[in-house]
Write a structure and sequence with these properties.
The chain has 2 helices and 4 strands. By secondary structure, it is of the alpha+beta class.
């Protein structure tokens, strides 16, 4: 049973997460030949101030987003 963990910035809508879950599930089914019912997806939403890349917080690095 594949388990996919997706970390992303907080603020995605329920519809956006549903579309992403469908796309990821479809890809796992097509690639690994497992049934869709076997694919579990866990979304972990974090505020931008809890992410940093290259030593810079995402609140600063992506201030306009």
């Amino acid at each position: 049973m594949p388990i996919l963990r997706v970390s992303l910035w907080a603020g995605k809508t329920k519809d956006e997460k549903a579309k992403l879950a469908k796309a990821l599930t479809d890809t796992m089914v097509a690639t690994t030949k497992v049934p869709a019912e076997a694919v579990t997806i866990m979304f972990e939403e974090l505020p931008k101030e809890n992410w940093a890349t290259g030593g810079q917080l995402h609140t600063e690095k992506f201030a306009g987003r």
